[in-house]
Amino acid sequence: MTTTTTDLRDLLTRALPVFHHRGTSLNIDGLASNLGMSRGGVYKWFKANRISPKGVRKILDLAANPENRRLLAETGTHPPAKEDFTPFLV
Fold this sequence. Notes:
Elements (H helix, E strand, L loop, with lengths): L7 H8 L4 E2 L3 E2 L1 H8 L3 H10 L4 H11 L2 H9 L16
Antiparallel strand pairs: 1-2
Helix pairs in contact: 2-3
């Protein structure tokens, strides 16, 4: 993916089309469930605009899902790289 953004939510929305809800908004319930965390935990990431290294690994695993990769490929986008999350690390 390797894009510059200052918003973690925006990065996750672009990185995880498999979790889009009603077009391009992020399905927080689905994302939280697949991450094994609460909706509140996801919203804490967004409010702080920060994510832990463990959270990054979980997101990268979800982004590597074959269906997510297919959806990204349809738009000519690659899955995110670990480096994309550097500005947001706790």
